Each structure stands twice: as structure tokens, then as C-alpha cells.
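Lesson 9: reading folded outputs for more than one chain in a single document. The general rule is that every protein is listed as its sequence immediately followed by its C-alpha cells, and records are never interleaved. Here is the first one.
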Amino acid sequence: MPLIAVLQMTSGIDPEVNYSTLEAAAIEAGEGGAEILFTPEMSLLLDRDRSRAGPWIESTEPERISDRLARLSAEAGIDLAIGSMPVMGANGRWANRSFYIGGSLGLRTTYDKIHMFDVQLSNGESWRESAAYEPGTQVVTVDDTPLGRLGLTICYDMRFPALFEQLGQRKCDAIAVPAAFTVPTGRDHWHVMLRARAIEASAFVIAAAQVGQHEDGRETYGHSLVVDPWGKVLLDMGGEDSGLAYCDIDLSRIEEVRSQLPSLANRRPIAN
């Protein structure tokens, strides 16, 4: 029964400070026997001021940080599912990119967020991720992790069931959904959507989240979750504090659920 660690963060505008938080968590989680550490979206830099963030993103620093994370993974003896950090992508635009780094194998798999967060909320919050970020185009899974096949998604992706259907059809055993969720949407949508995605894919959902008041002025919802394939919440880290938590993952639950409710096997094509 693999043990995982989930890091709930209040990331800020200094990547080195954020890296130090992540480094300490990886060492602690490795010493605690966890096999994978999951971190939130924008773990290494959370800054809505694009003119301030741009020089770092467009430098060689993100690549250097990813190399440091690979060394950290090996030294701490733990795989790292880095929720995301901003990097230079294609066509001179940025990408919101997840990294899966396997300490023992040196494995490094990346996923670029597909669905851009372009919204105008009733409380006045306005977000236009597509103004700076290039959306990804590829569904990505990582095979042979301590949890089996792991699907990679990021935050707003959770609102698009077709992506999770594809991950379910690929027989993912677990799906990572790192996030920096807003408070208004989090209160009403976070738990219900993540439980639904777990049920639809008949897979564990692991959602490490940002929490609290951030240096760039935003507030995030927190409540990092682990949900089992039946939709049962196994871990909820609450909406107040950052920190590290652990959860045992009983992989036998996947086959139990799929044998009782074989919705993936029963899927039928629907004519237009």
C-alpha cells in the first residue's frame, strides 16, 4: 500500500523561497516513508504581475530549477509530482508545465496545461491565462510510478470531463490535479468536481492545492484532497494553513470499484 505525501503551499513571488519550502517537504516526506510528493500548481512561482515574473520565466532559471528538483528527488529518495511552474513554451509564449520526476530512474515527464483559465467572476476577479500562456495539446500519463499509471492535469482542466474520460480509458490508476483555485469557485465546486472526476475515471484523484493570502494579492482556497475511485475523500487538508500531509493509497480499491461499476468498459459511442 503506497504512502504518498501532499504539500499544501502558500507560494509567493520568490522562486528560491518556494524551492526551499519544497526541498524541506521532500526531505521530510522521504524520511517519513512516502514514495511520491505531490505539490500544487505554480509551486515555484505564483505571481500575477507578468512584468515582474517575465524575466525569471524567460531566463534559464526554470530549467536550472528542474535540474535541482531532479537531484533533490534522487537525494531524498522520493518521486516528485511538481504541480507546475511557468516556463518558456512554443511560439515565444509561456507554458504552465507540470513535472513528474522519478528519483530512482531519473525519469522526467512533463505536461502543459490544456485548458486556459479565462474567466470573469462576480466578485470582480478577472483572469486571462491565455493572454500569456500557450495551451498544451497532449494528454500525458506516466507509467510505472509507485501508484501505477498516473495521469497529469492542472487545475482548470478538472472542469472538462472529456480529458478525464481519456485518462480513464487509458486505465490510469491515479490522476494528479494540482491547483491554485479561487475561493469563490472553490467553496461551491472544488469537492464536488474532484469527487466526480474520481468516480468517472474509476481512479484515485490527488489534488495538491495552494492556500491562503499570497504576495501577489490573490487568495486561494486550499483543501488539498485525496479521493478514492468510489468518490470517498481520504484526505482534506482544510482551507487555512500550508503544510505536509500523508495518505495511504490502497490500490486494490481500483479493481474493486471497476468490477462493481464497470462504467469504463460499458461506455458506448454516441452519434452526433
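And here is the second record, again sequence then C-alpha cells.
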Amino acid sequence: MSTFRDKPIGVFDSGVGGLTVAHAIRQLLPNERMIYFGDTAHLPYGEKSPEAILHYARRITAFLVEEGCKAVVIACNSASSVAYEPLQEAYGDAVPVVNVIDPVVDYYVKHLAPARVGVIGTKATIASGAYEKKIRAKSPEARVISLATPLFVPMIEEGFIYDDISNAIIRAYLSQEPIRSVEALILGCTHYPIIKNQISKFYDFSVEILDTAVIVARSVRDLLTRRGLLRETPARDDEHLFYVSDYTDYFARIAGMFFEERITLRKLDLWKEEN
């Protein structure tokens, strides 16, 4: 007989970036089933208004809850910065919602504060000031340097990785002061772990790079452990479901790179009735 602990974890993002979080969860929690939704029809969220992002996030979360998910992970910094509190208020303790900002802030405060920390992310994430506000609320003496790096997401989505183009864009952004002189760097976008090694190399491997995916996966594990919701039997590969709101063969190939294994994407338009 299926119990609530056997239900899947829901994960969503505007595109493939959240698959870095999904992959980290799968590595850390191999027993857990997963339903992933990539809102590719509306990407990138980082260029959208807060109202639009909240609208998309509410519809996707409703779908994941309808599918019986026992927890929902907002695997997108832009959505986490504007939609987390409204979603948490809507679902309360019934279906816990995890964002990708708070776990990283907590890690920094616990292990690195008051080291000079940089935050890079989309325009929406940086404009929200979410990281800076949350860090300073817990560590007032911390010095936080934020920088929008909007070209990183399209660069990664188009497959420009480990080449002269990506290295030039990384150098153009991170060579600026004061981001160049940070002691730690938060990757404030779930796409960015894909270029973590290139960023580390830019800093001569002397700066601690905070990988959102791994830190959030640990947070999900801790949440499920506290609530007694860890699944006890290993999940089969065919128990994981991956949806996108728009589908292309190219996107499917990029998704395989993000998740580090072959996955089957299903197209699902949650907004058909609105169109």
C-alpha cells in the first residue's frame, strides 16, 4: 500500500537549470521519485516581471501538488526570490515548499561569514536583493557584492561551455571590481553549476564557490528526514517524470547534459486554457 512518504518530490524551473538540483537530489536520495517541470515556454524567468514569475510558479506548483508531490522544490533563483513566500503561505505544512536561496544563505552564515561574498545571478534575482537581505539579516557584518550576469543563462542554454566564448563572457563579468576580489561566490542561478569549474579557474581556485544544487539537495534531505517522509525503497528510472511546457530536440540534448544522463521529456502546456 502506497503511503505519503512514497509520493514524489516535485521540482520546477524555467528551463533546464533546475535539472542540476534534480540531479543532486537524485544522487543524494536515490530512493526518491521525482516529477520535474521545466517551463521552457516562458524562459528565461530572469527577464520576466515579478508578477509574471509568480503567475507561472503558482500554476506549476498547483500541478505538482495535484500530481501528489509530498514536497515542492523551487529550483530557480528568480522564482525563489518572488514566489517562495506566497507559495509557502498557500500550501503551509501540507506540502512543504523549498527554495534555493535560504539553504545557501544558511550555509554561508554557518561556514563562511563574515567572508566577503559575491552573488551572481539573473537580473530578477539580483534586483530582488534576496540574497543580500537574507545574509545581512543573519550576519550584519557581512559584505555582500551582487552582480547581474544575464548572458550566462543564454550562453549555457545555447551550449557555449568550455570554449573561448564562455571564457570571454565569464572574464568580462568577473573581472569587474569588487566582484573580482571576493573570498566566496554564490552561484545565484541553477544554471551556473554547469560552469562552476570555469568560474573556479578564473579565480585560480582560491575562492569557495557555493554550488546551489548540492546545498539544496542536502536541505531537501534534512526536511524529509525531520518529517519522517524519506522513501524506503529505491526508485526505478521509469518512476521519474520530466515535463516541459515547450519541446525541441535541441533542448532535449541540453537537458541530458544538465542531468548527466539520458531522460525523456514530455510536453505539457499548463496554460492552454489561458491562450
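What the second record shows: Residues 1 and 92 are 26 Å apart (CA to CA).
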